Amino acid sequence: MQKFNTKTLVLMAMLTALEIVLSRFLSISAWNTKIGFAFVPVVLAALLLGPLYAAIVAALADFLGAILFPVGAYFPGFTLTAFLMGLVYGLFLYRKQGFWRILAAVALHQLILSLLLNTLWISVLYGSPFAPLLVSRLPQCAILAAVQLAVIPLLVQLAPRLKAAMP
User: Fold this and answer.
1) Rounded to an integer, what distance in angstroms lies between the CA atom of residue 55 and that of residue 83?
2) How many Cα neighbours within 13 Å face the side chain of 49?
3) What is this structure's pTM?
């Protein structure tokens, strides 16, 4: 894991801001479905900085995005899920990448965190029955899994160039 210094702090701030913009303004959202590229800054944080920093970027972006640009009521469960997402990507992608590691990270994120945990939070928050909500969120998870499996290998190839370009 990198040292926490000014360069790391600035990079984390930029990735947090980018995640907020991608999540709040450049994604397709319905009340229980969200499709977009907000995972990209978190994956970059995981690749460049490691699990803890990626988790902080994801959680901070979720919290600040919810406070600054609310879509609904703030619920800390979603921030917990965001933290865990950054942690998962960091644990699987920092320093060592490959198809199976990318597949495992995307599967854990989409099946456990997004499909099960976020569905639970939506169910608790809105009082909706869990099972029908889970079924309605399956297409979102399938689409996002495919998008992530296509985009993350590109980010893995880009990461060394970004790291080399940083002073």
Assistant:
1) 4
2) 28
3) 0.93
Q: What are the C-alpha distances in Å from 43 to residues 70, 123, 135?
A: 24, 27, 27
- Domains of the chain in start order, with CATH, are 6-165 (1.10.1760.20)
The helix (H) or strand (E) run that includes residue 133 is helix 130-165
Among residues 77, 72, 58, 74, the alpha carbon closest in space to that of 20 is found at: 58
pLDDT tens for the chain, residues 1 to 167: 567 889 999 999 999 999 999 998 888 776 566 788 999 999 999 999 999 999 999 999 999 999 999 887 899 999 999 999 999 999 999 999 999 999 999 999 999 999 999 999 999 998 999 999 999 999 989 999 999 999 999 999 999 998 888 87
Question: 28: which DSSP letter?
Answer: E
